[in-house]
Amino acid sequence: LRPLEELNMMDSFLFEAATEDAEKAEKIARIIIERVTGHRVKNLIIESQKSLKGINVDKRGIRMDLYSTEKDMANENCLLRSYDIEPNNYYEKDLPRRNRYYQSLMDTKLLRSGAGYEKLPDVTTIWILPYDPFDDDRIIYTIKNVVTENEKLIYNDGVRKIFLYTKGTKGGTPELKNLLNYMEHTRKENAVDEELQQIQSIVDEVKCSDEERTRYMKIYGVIDYEKRDSYEAGHTAGEAEGHEKKLIEL
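Below the sequence we write its predicted structure tokens.
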């Protein structure tokens, strides 16, 4: 169990704790979105740890780390864009298919009954990864649907998937590189500009909070206990199986 002080923004507990408050979450989401996409967001509505149920009770639901929607300044009922930000600290070979499922389930919640499909907002999913998902050493991979017979033709379905590799060396802006380095190594010396210092101040609040420290210890104390219990049960089962084999051999 790593101490709370050693966690970084790629760790689910710290990222969740830092984005629980809507105002702080909006600040973090805005910085990430603007550095990743280059788009200046104006009216961002935040939903941290948003859960979406499956379309039926027997279908899988999802929980998004940091979900936000950008609304039209002139019309609060009009959604322009939605963003899902997912720091993912562990290797997952089926990440593209996971992204596909997330995006498809998000779409089912974005269009009101009777509304035309032109009202469906653009969707961007942003995955922040400590490993290279495509082995091309790029900081940023942006995926859109294309017409394979002629990639110059425009096929605009409003869907964009972005995968960020924290250790990549190709592409990306200096601001994005600084952000990704900070996400993976969340320390004061890596908060090299004013926006990252704003995130660092939020992180400092979490790490200095007795309430968060207690919550962290409780959550991971349970996980550690379950791991130990599972190990002991597996060890006992293995010993019993080995003893049974010896009896058979005799």
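The chain has a mean pLDDT of 84.
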